[in-house]
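Hi, here's the filled form for the chain we discussed.

Project: internal
Contact: R.S.
Residues: 76
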Amino acid sequence: MTRTFTTEELSESLPPITSLIGKCEKAQAKLTEGTAQHSLLRNRIKALRVAEALILQALEPSKAQEPDERQEQPND
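And the returned structure, exactly as it came back:
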């Protein structure tokens, strides 16, 4: 079953997602590349960026940013 979200719900969900991306990137920078924790955060960041892009697309289809347009971590 597909749920339709209101514009207000989508708008309210963006700041927490953006915040989580930043927090995950900060935590990932402290971890050694190749560890399970580092990989988990890398995958989580990618998923959050996809969610962010989909929400932006739903809010403003013409202004949606592709996930690849965000600045990538050098160790991704």
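Let me know if anything looks off before we file it.
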